[in-house]
Amino acid sequence: MSGYTTGSVTLRRAIGLMSGTSLDGVDAAWIETDGEQIFAFGPKATLFYEDPLRARLRALLNVAAMRPQDDPEITALAAIIAERHAEAAVLLARGADMIGFHGQTILHNPQQRRTWQIGDPALLAHKTRLPVAYDFRSADVAAGGEGAPLVPLFHQALAAKLEKPLMIVNIGGVANITWLGTDGAILACDTGPGNGPLDDWLHQHTGAPFDRDGAMALSGTVAEDRLAALMADPYFARPAPKSLDRLHFSAPIAKALMGLSPADGAATLVAFTAAAIAAAPVPPGIQRLLVTGGGRHNRAIMQALQARFAVPVDPVEAVGWDGDALEAQCFGFLAIRVARGLPLSLPSTTGVATPMCGGQIKQPIY
User: Fold this and answer.
1) How does pLDDT run across 232-250, given as a tens digit for each residue?
2) pLDDT digits (tens, 9 = 90+) for 139-173
3) How far apart, in whole angstroms, are the C-alpha atoms of residue 192 and residue 196?
4) CA-based angle 263:292:145, to the nearest 5?
5) Domain residue spans in the chain?
6) Architecture per CATH, 4-147+356-362
7) Architecture in CATH for domain 152-319
8) In principle, which of 48, 136, 269, 313 could form an S-S bond with 25, CB 3.0–4.6 Å?
């Protein structure tokens, strides 16, 4: 791999690509790192999926568990995903050494040793003429880990100089947290629903793709009895680390919210997201809560979180991070760790028995 050396550190420029379970599109971000420290951030870009593609991906989530690897629809979508990621990557590719390609998750069930991200890394490498690191989760899941979340080591590097204990919350389709202790300890898990169920509710009842600024939720009233029923899910009694699929709560939510108005359903789902984050099994005494991901743009979610925490709840921009680019930056960071053979996960972040390396690298064919 290329890169350049300053002092005893070899710096490498990577483009991270991330398409989350919110299914809204591809985030691309440029990062300079050695896979342990972060030295610089560069430009970023977002390429939104067109509505028909979002619809095809959302439909696939419902049936992925029953589809074979060579299913024609999945093969077709994998190629389209690679094309869209290539379009995003080439906007930033000048001077880059490699790409970190997460792919599009269509299934995550670590209890059955399954995690499935679709995309075509060979096509992406061909289109960009850059090595592509991919398949970040499979080794962890195969070794008995949860395979998620994978952002904690990046969060730890980002927060090296911040006061601890600190909790970082990422609210995408699913929400996850990283807890960082004063002694270097790190703990992570998926907390429960993020934007995914709220997006689905709004689309089902209003046709809107999401609750812009939390306006619908703020106009409604939380159905406390329905919220209590949702919080009774056995997932919340499990210790960290733990993870879940985007659709884990789909059936319970459909049952619990039956008969509610669109506004009250949205308010209850926001309360569910916040309550699940507040129930995260982490040590007490955090000094601050930093929020990243699309959920930080939702005023209802941010207000609900602040109501549940007695410490400041701020978007990550308050400490100079870019919440719209952070997950993409993470997979640039992890790409360099793959290239260097460094662990991507720890026993305290995914439950794997020992620190786990992972990922594969696809080289372009010239």
Assistant:
1) 999 999 999 999 888 899 9
2) 999 999 999 999 999 999 999 999 999 999 999 88
3) 10
4) 105
5) 4-147+356-362, 152-319
6) 2-Layer Sandwich (3.30)
7) 2-Layer Sandwich (3.30)
8) 48
